[in-house]
Design a protein that fits this description.
Length: 314
């Protein structure tokens, strides 16, 4: 395996980004730039106090297929410089543009595919509108606007409170936990929406107000024209973080291919039973400990790359 640390400055931002370019044995000219999901995620998919190696394990699966990968630390995470809480969607798009440009310019790369996972799936089309790629994978994303996704996730959480059974559910409803959560959520969101500050503090916690404001108005469909012909949408039937049916809807809107893996969750693992948003981190940790990257996901990518034909000229 050939590994190279790549560091680049993102024009128009205060961010210096670090990432790793990895070329496996058997490499044959096809490469991937991975755009990660939301949160303070580093190149390997880790967040503070939780090392899960989500993107490292996914990259290793691609390496086994002979695909080179570029993964980078988001602003303020890993080796990248900057303040994570000051970065918005526009900054993540600018970082992705420069990352894609860096890999496209490498002489050993014949074909590059942008893979956007979760939040990365949403901003991928905006990146492609500035720097075209040979392929795109809309991975565990949602076809709704940013505000619709945020509302969907809150509604799902509230539904779980309403349906919680037993004495615990009774007690939570008795003390109006649901109403208290909604009231607090509305208060903090209003504070972020009504300020021009890039970040705020709420009860001692830092919150990314710029990201929230930009997410409210963002719609990937504004960039549907930038989706390359060779693209694919993937989702898992056990994914509760995004709206089900998004992969099929994306494929219909763009004239591309959809792959739905019924027992795969948001973190690319096999999941036999439904998830609970109220216990999602505990369940994810268990799935990481017990399950590898879903084998059907690897098969889907193998078929995708086998069918991809590099351009005649780079």
């Amino acid at each position: 395996m050939k590994r190279e640390e790549i560091v680049f400055q993102v024009e128009g931002t205060p961010y210096e980004i670090s990432g790793v370019w990895e070329v496996p044995e058997g490499y044959y000219g096809k490469a991937v730039v991975l755009v990660s999901g939301s949160g303070p995620v580093d190149r390997d998919g880790n967040i503070p106090k939780w090392k899960n190696n989500l993107y490292l394990s996914f990259a290793e699966a691609l390496h086994d297929l002979g695909i080179a990968t570029f993964r980078y630390d988001k602003p303020g995470t890993g080796k990248s410089k900057g303040d994570y809480y000051e970065a918005g969607l526009s900054d993540y798009i600018a970082v992705g543009v420069e990352a894609l440009r860096k890999i496209k310019d490498r002489p050993e790369v014949q074909m590059v595919t942008l893979i956007g996972h979760s939040e990365g799936a949403l901003i991928g089309p905006a990146i492609l509108a500035q720097v075209p790629a040979d392929g795109f994978v809309f991975f565990s994303g949602t076809v709704g606007r940013g505000d619709e996704l945020l509302s969907f996730q809150l509604d799902e959480l509230m539904n779980e409170f309403q349906q919680m059974k037993g004495i615990k559910g009774f007690l939570l409803r008795l003390i109006n936990v649901e109403k208290k959560i909604l009231k607090q959520n509305q208060k903090v969101l209003a504070k972020m929406r009504n300020t021009t500050e890039v970040k705020i503090r709420y009860r001692g916690a830092q919150l990314n107000a710029k990201w929230y404001r930009e997410m409210l108005t963002y719609d990937w469909k504004d960039y549907v024209y930038a989706i390359p012909e060779y693209s694919m949408a993937i989702e898992g039937g056990r994914d509760i973080q995004v709206q089900q049916g998004s992969a099929v809807a994306f494929a219909e809107m763009t004239g591309t291919k959809a792959v739905v893996i019924p027992d795969m969750n948001h973190i690319m693992r096999r999941r036999a039973t439904p998830h609970s948003l109220l216990a999602i981190q505990k369940e994810y940790k268990k799935d990481f400990a017990e399950q590898p990257v879903h084998p059907e996901l690897i098969q889907a990518f193998q078929q995708f790359f086998d069918e991809a034909v590099p351009p005649v000229e780079k």
